[in-house]
Amino acid sequence: MKLDKNTYGTVVLIYVLSAVGIFLSLRFIPQWWIKWPLSLFLLWLSGWQTYFHMVPDRKPVGSDHLVSAVSDGKIVRVEEVFDPVYLKRNVLMISVYMDFWDLHANFWPVTGTVSFAEYFPGRHFLAFKPKASEENEHSCTVIRTPEGKEVLFKQLAGSVARRIVCYARTGLEVRAGEQCGIIKFGSRIDYYLPCDARVRVKVGDLVKAVSTIIAEI
Q1: 65 alpha-carbon distance from chain centroid
Q2: CA–CA gap between residue 59 and residue 177 (Å, rounded)
Q3: Can you give the C-alpha Rg of the chain in angstroms?
Q4: CATH architecture of 66-216
Q5: Which range is least confidently modeled, 15-24, 84-93, 127-136, 149-158?
Q6: pTM score, whole prediction
Q7: Distance of CA 134 to the CA centre of its chain
Q8: Over 159-203, what HEC string results?
Q9: Are strands 173-174 and 112-120 parallel, antiparallel or unpaired?
Q10: Whether residue 63 lies in the annotated active site
Q11: Considering 25, 46, 139, 187, which one is annotated as catalytic?
C-alpha cells in the first residue's frame, strides 16, 4: 500500500499536532495516568490516520460489464429509484457506507469513458441517511461502457467529511480498478445501474474496493 497523493498535507498536519500534543502532555501534565495514556492515544491516532489514507494494492476484478466496488464499506441500500439529475429514468440504486475504519481511497467501478462529471455543493447529513443521496455535498460521475451501458456513481460527503477528490472529467477513458479519487472521513458511495443489472450483493454485505463485484450489467 502507499499513501494517497492528495493526503500528504493532512497526514503531516496530524503528525505535527500529535507531536505537539505529546510534548505538552509529557512536559506539563504531572499525573502519569493522564499523560502516558494521552500520549499513546496520539501515537495511535497518527498511525490510524496514516492507514486510513492509504491506497490498497489489490487485483482488479471489474471490467466493462462487471461493476466492482468503488470503496470499502457496507451495503446499506439496494432498491429501484428514479434518477432526476442525469439519467432521468428508473435505475437500480446500491449504496455503500464507509465508516471511520474503512480505507477511503476510491476506484473506477467499470471500464469505459466518462460521459458526465460534476461536483455538487450541499449539506452534511449523516452519510447512512437516505436523504444524504440527494442533499449532501457530492461528486457525480457517469461512465459509458463500450456497449453503451451507463454506470453513474456518487461520492458523498458525510457529517464529518469536508473534502471529495475525484479525477473524473468528460471524455476521460478509465479502467475498472484504477484509482479515481478519495473521500476524507466517514462517507458513502451510491451506484445507479441499469434496472436489468444482476446484483451480486445484498444489504449488510461488506465489500472491498477493487476486489468485490457489485453487479453485472
Answers
A1: 21
A2: 8
A3: 19
A4: Distorted Sandwich (2.70)
A5: 127-136
A6: 0.88
A7: 16
A8: CCCCCEEECCCCCCEECCCCEEEEECCCEEEEEEECCCCEECCCC
A9: antiparallel
A10: no
A11: 187
